[in-house]
Prior knowledge:
- The protein is α/β, with parallel strands linked by helices and 208 residues long.
- The chain has one domain (9-166): Rossmann fold.
- It contains nine helices and seven strands; from the N terminus they run H-E-E-H-E-H-H-H-H-E-H-E-H-E-E-H.
- Strand 6 (170-174) and strand 7 form a beta hairpin.
- Helix 3 runs parallel beside helix 6 (103-115).
- The longest helix has 16 residues, at 133-148.
- The radius of gyration is 17 Å and the shape is globular.
- The mean pLDDT is 90.
- Adenosine-5'-triphosphate is lined by residues 3, 5-11, 52, 158, 176, 208.
Amino acid sequence: MIGANGAGKSTLLRTIAGLHRPVAGTIQLDGSDITHLPAHRRVAAGIVMVPEGRRLFPSLSLEENLKLGSTRSRSGAWDLDRVYQLFPWMAERRGGPTVHLSGGEQQAVAIGRALMANPRILLLDELSLGLAPAVVQRLYDMLPALLATGMSILLVEQDVTQALRVSDWAHCLLEGRIMLSGRPRDLASTEVEAAYFGLSKRAVGGGG
Ligand SMILES: Nc1ncnc2c1ncn2[C@@H]1O[C@H](COP(=O)(O)OP(=O)(O)OP(=O)(O)O)[C@@H](O)[C@H]1O
Ligand SMILES: [Mg+2]
């Protein structure tokens, strides 16, 4: 999901996660309507969000932050050991605070916390926000391994090139509406630019 500042990307993710109630439309999971399901039950159903800005708890240790992810967890293979396998550096710093971690490390903790809930659908809001290119690359390099476990990822990203490179499907949001949808290889860059900057009036899907 790509789109400029203020396009409504976070609002869409938060609505899917159950933190906002839509004024119109429905949210469906496997064909059943979950529009009125509270957020914690959506986590149990496998919809788990990594929020924009990581939102770690500064008074808690790294491991305590991770454990919070499993409070409403779906059962599954993800636990502390598996997160530490994915991010070995975390095991060594498990008892320490998260405030001293770099932005990329904090993002990794936020991802680890989400994985602790055993997501079927992982909502990632602005994975690359405020991070150095090499750090962003490392986080992106990890995504195929997550997808290989059968998890789906809905990635919100302002870095269009990076997002289109890793996605099967892309949607461009503008003022709360999907302006363009398709497989990245089928989308011309001029088309993406027009949808991103609002140069095209064609809205598809009727979202809002
Ligand atoms: N579908 C919508 N209908 C009405 N208002 C919306 C809708 N989506 C978002 N907004 C409003 O637009 C503003 C920006 O939304 P949001 O923060 O979701 O954008 P964003 O794409 O995540 O921006 P950023 O790139 O800065 O993170 C907010 O004030 C939000 O309440
Ligand atoms: Mg946002």
